[in-house]
From TrEMBL:
Protein name per the record: RNA-directed DNA polymerase
GO biological process, one term: DNA integration
Top enzyme class: transferase
GO MF term list: nucleic acid binding; RNA-directed DNA polymerase activity
EC numbers, comma separated: 2.7.7.49
Membrane spanning stretches: none
Pfam family, one: rve
Domain Integrase catalytic: 117-275
Cited PANTHER family: PROTEIN CBG26694, PROTEIN NYNRIN-LIKE
UniProt organism field: Argiope bruennichi (Wasp spider)
Length: 275
């Protein structure tokens, strides 16, 4: 069942709302109850209680198990129900797969340190897994996104597992062999990043490792924003062939890496990457 097809067949007779309702905020659009946002610019589909879990699955599980903030952002783009924010937070916090890979899924961070400002491209790299994607013909179900802080250039590598060597292989072949070892490698506390194998590898190349708290959420937001863009770009491309996402990944990355970046103000990170 695709991400979009689940929701739009629901007519107003399926919708139940509790408590006082300001009807001026609601419309029937194409037999679907929609809620008009305050600025009147966009309407979002009102999701009945029976469909909320499926909606959460579509906006969290099916798009790579993003954290609560990103999942809520996905939801808010299209849907609304009372207490959606609270339900989203509770759902992500209790997600079994997120817990298995020890991902930081909530937005509760401790004391923050200032993120160092890179002086050259590929000096500071953030990495993150996007997990539980539809299995491809090549057996891939995850991807590792690695992003350069200076240029926001993104490299994403599909993998069949979350084993530590998938991280070190991707780092070695896609970054070290091309640009040299970065000074700093940031990630969450996922087991692939904290494994002895990964720690030894980083030590061997003189790379300082940081596994989240000190440098988040700023560091996290860089890689999570990249993840969100990768997933949304792929979603547009894969359409009826979700099992081919790994084949279409290079196309999505080219589009991402040649699009103007708000943060760097450069129109082409490919260019900034080599100057
Ligand atoms: Zn999850």
């Amino acid at each position: 069942m695709t991400f979009v097809s689940i929701f739009f067949a629901y007519s107003e007779k399926n919708i139940q709302t509790k408590g006082p309702v300001n009807h001026s905020n609601y419309n029937i659009d194409n037999n679907t109850l929609v809620r008009v946002k305050d600025n009147n610019s966009k309407s979002v589909v009102v999701i009945p209680k029976a469909m909320r879990e499926k909606t959460l699955i579509a906006c969290h599980d099916d798009v790579g198990h993003m954290d609560a903030k990103k999942t809520l952002h996905n939801l808010q783009l299209r849907y609304w129900w009372p207490n959606m924010r609270k339900d989203c937070k509770a759902y992500v916090r209790s997600c079994h797969k997120c817990q298995i890979v020890n991902r930081r899924t909530a937005n509760a961070y401790g004391l923050l340190q200032q993120l160092p400002i890179p002086s050259t491209p590929w000096e500071i790299v953030s990495a993150d897994h996007i997990i539980c994607l539809p299995e491809t013909r090549n057996g891939n179900t995850n991807m590792l996104a690695q992003i350069d802080h200076a240029t926001r250039y993104v490299i994403a590598t599909p993998s069949a597992s979350l084993a530590a060597h998938t991280v070190t292989d991707a780092l070695y072949h896609n970054i070290i062999l091309r640009y040299g070892p970065p000074n700093m490698y940031l990630s969450d506390g996922g087991t692939a990043f904290t494994a002895r194998h990964t720690q030894r590898f980083l030590q061997k190349y003189g790379i300082t490792q940081s596994t989240t708290p000190p440098y988040s959420p700023q560091a996290n937001s860089i890689v999570e924003r990249a993840n969100g863009i990768i997933v949304s770009s792929l979603k547009k491309m894969i359409d009826k062939n979700p099992n081919k996402w790994d084949e279409l990944l290079p196309n999505a990355l080219l589009a991402i890496n040649t699009t103007k970046q708000n943060s760097t103000k450069k129109s082409n990170p490919l260019f900034t990457s080599w100057i």
